[in-house]
Amino acid sequence: MTTIKTSLLCGALLGALAFGLHAQQTQLAPAQARITDEAIHADLGSYERTQLRIKALNDAGRPVRDYHLSKAQCWLDVSFHEYTRNDRSAFPQEALGESETLINGMEQGVSPLPTDTPLINGAARVREDLWQRLGAIHGTPGFVCAQQAVACGEVELVHAGNEFNQQQWRHSKPYIQIAEDLVSDAEALSRQCGTGPGGGADVRPAETVLTANILFEFDRTGAGDVRAYSLQSLDRELGRLREENLRLVAVELVGHADRLDGRGAPYNQRLSELRAQTVRGLLLARGVDAAIVTSAYRGDTDQVQACDGVTPRAALRECLIPNRRVEVRLVARPG
């Protein structure tokens, strides 16, 4: 009998907690009603009130860098962004709901707050490699410094997945680039945590790995076929070595191809080899010692972007560009 009563009590408490977290959910005007000044003005007022609740939490002592406060802000930001772009799907409402759920929990002092990131509005889970890199930061000592970038990176990946579902890769790509930048920033903040002025003893690991992906045009392998923004990401990571006083001890290159000529095709294997050789040359031109560079080639066996159902052919090629990559792993030690 005691066990039954305990179970019922626990169930009631969990139900009350769930109710509290989801209380006071703001309802935006239905999409078909967003045609009058009155409806839009009311919705803008809802966004403003939600922003003021976030500000009040910050004013009460919860820092801007806090994971949950940051996540509430980023959910609010992407909701408002899509609302102003006239997104008529459920995304603005559901993103606003995620923001309010976190706000409710923080206001009520709930602990622990959830750390999951729902794929709202049926968003595609794009770029599993970026999800994994963000997930690896959770639970590490450096998370305390990186939590804002981690939270917003996770939200932007959902944002990108929603855009992918609605308008395919062309509309998703800008948000993927934002997410990539946030992942890189989160990793840097995590590495540097506790090592700056006033940060105490240097607690950095004996070895650190920085990552960049160099992307190639379809069926191309030369230096002139590299997407400029991906090369900029490599230069940024090389710059971080200097900024963080890290000494480069090894560079690991892994070449890849997309799936368009058939999984495991020898042709794609050769593309991955040539791409890795091109990136090796780019690194040597930047002063990297050839003796510390190693290469591996995986053809089309490791796809990070599926692009199922994407048409026409030109759109599919563009969508698959994350698979036409050379992964660059910069292994470094404190200088």
From TrEMBL:
Report the superkingdom from the record. Bacteria
Q: Is this entry keyworded NAD?
A: no
Record Gene3D superfamilies: OmpA-like domain (3.30.1330.60)
- Database matches in InterPro entries: OmpA-like (IPR006665), OmpA-like_sf (IPR036737)
Domain spans labelled OmpA-like: 203-334
Q: Which residues form the signal peptide?
A: 1-23
Entry keywords, A to Z: Membrane, Signal
What GO cellular component is one of the record's annotations? membrane
Keyword hit for Membrane? yes
Q: Which SUPFAM superfamilies match?
A: OmpA-like
Which named protein is this?
A: OmpA family protein
